[in-house]
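so my prof wants the structure for this chain in the tokens format not the other one, which i didnt know existed until like an hour ago. anyway here's the sequence
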Amino acid sequence: MRDVLVAELAGRQFNRISRAQLEALGLSRRAIEHRVKTGRLVIVEEAVFAIPPVLEHDDWGRWMGATLTAPGTVLSHFSAAAAWGFWSRPRPFETVTRPGSGGPRRHGGLWVHRSATLDGTCTELRGIPITTAARTITDLAAQRISRKALARAVREAVRLGVTTLGEIADCVGRHPRRRGSRHVMAALARYSGLPLERARSGAEVRALEVVREAGRPLPRLNVRIAGEEADLSWARERIIVEIDGAPFHLDAGEDARKEACWRAAGWEVRRIDARLVYTEPEALLALAPA
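here's what i got, hopefully its the right format
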């Protein structure tokens, strides 16, 4: 019966369960050791177990296991950024933060930070304790990542809807002297006034940057025209620019249908490949009104 309860709890936690949870279910230390010796449990982190088989490429399982290593532990920094979806670079270790003070240290397969300012900056994501996306941004900035990488993280976090520019600014405002705060504020200033919340892709956000940096009028983003949603549009000039590329605009027939609707309503439609928005911004400017 206890094994059933163990399996049920582990199943709700991406196949991870802590020693404290096992003991709460009635398993003694000796019973836990016996299950490890007989292969019914596998140690995946200090005081954290999984039921075999353990998947090799299971981010969510690793993240859950990391937060089960000690009370009050939350996923943070690069691991939290990856979980929120705005960081995709390789991570040599999973990163967590625990209440307290002191510098970061490695514990097993984890890089552990301490913080006395976690209150109000933590939440849950799919049941995993994690720093909010806004707090995660400020944590990344404190790691001295490049300004370009930080700006990209801000842009993607807002585009994905996991935070807002205002929430990030509020988080910085609580601790304005924290390392990296100036760089976060510089990234926010870069994007202030841009309607990032309506963006569907990084290419759309980059397009807004290109247009603004060139001193051109900013387009409306993803608004409906003649009943169809247009990527970039300038109402006065009645110009629409569609950004083609994955994961959108893969259906040529649908694109042609929408374009016909817009042209019938008196709009000029121009198209550009998403890759050119990044590599040849002048190609986008050639399509945008002066």
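also thought this was worth mentioning. The chain has a mean pLDDT of 93.
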